[in-house]
Amino acid sequence: MYKPRTKRLARDLARIAATLPEGSSFVLWNYPDSPPCSLNQLSQHLGVAMSTRYPQGVSLLGISFGGVVAARLSALMPGHFGKLVLISSALGLSDSGQHIVRSQIEAVAKEDTKALLGTFANIYRSRWRNIRFALFTRLVGPWLGRFLNDPATVQAYLELLETAHEDLVIDQSGTPTLILGGRDDQIFGERMMQDAIRSIKHAELVLIHGETHMLVVERPDKVRAALDCWL
């Protein structure tokens, strides 16, 4: 949702590095500024770029919406990736996730930053983090719009996520796949993660008790421990 500012990208890089096995190297990919018409088109766009830069055998990791895209990308490039990791993600949204994303789309369409931030209430496991976010929303919310991407772009990407269950392309090539999530994930949920491992050939699910969609932010140590055993 946010503009790709240098400070934010640096924070994202540090956050991802904290979850990977020690000594891992990685490349962080951004999405196109102009959103494609479908998830498959977006995945094909990224696939063309990746296939010219990276040899077969590299691992592909996606978090949240990035996991939805990564799963499609793996299916459209069978056998190219050595391993696939989806964190706090699945092939489609849970019922609660559908409700949250629909509310976000409506808030963005109205350019209602307060309502948009309200959809993230109680997204964290930690009560203190939720209180801090509520205070942040109250104090900074009115000015936050200047840091967000163009509303039409944000809405278009949210609509891609909302329709993730449509026109599914599922990897049956046997790419070893790990789905790692919090058991209380509000966006994808345990049921959708279970559905994903039943659909993807050679997929394994690791659920962490008591954790939510913000697993990577709140429990990077648990994510790293799981990836240490698997990658």
The termini sit apart by 29 Å
Q: Based on Cα principal axes, name the global outline.
A: globular
Helix share bin: 40-55%
- The name CATH uses for the topology of the largest domain is Rossmann fold
Strand order of the largest sheet: 1-2-3-4
The CATH superfamily of the largest domain turns out to be: Alpha/Beta hydrolase fold, catalytic domain
Strand proportion: 5-15%
Average pLDDT = 89
Structural features, described:
By secondary structure, the chain is of the alpha/beta class. The protein folds into two domains: 6-91 and 168-230, Alpha/Beta hydrolase fold, catalytic domain (Rossmann fold, 3-Layer(aba) Sandwich); 96-156, no CATH class. The chain is 50% helix and 9% strand. It contains ten helices and four strands, in the order ααβαβααααβαβαα. It has helices spanning 6-19, 39-51, 65-76, 95-109, 113-118, 127-144, 151-162, 189-199, 215-218, 220-230, and strands at residues 60-63, 84-87, 177-182, 203-208. A four-stranded parallel beta sheet has the order 1-2-3-4, with helices on both faces. The mean pLDDT is 89.
Q: Which tags fit this structure?
A:
2 domains; 231 residues; alpha/beta; globular; 4-stranded parallel beta sheet; 10 helices; 4 strands; Rossmann fold
Write the layout of secondary structure elements.
Elements: H1 6-19, H2 39-51, E1 60-63, H3 65-76, E2 84-87, H4 95-109, H5 113-118, H6 127-144, H7 151-162, E3 177-182, H8 189-199, E4 203-208, H9 215-218, H10 220-230
Parallel strand pairs: 1-2, 2-3, 3-4
Quick rundown:
With 231 residues, the protein is α/β, with parallel strands linked by helices.
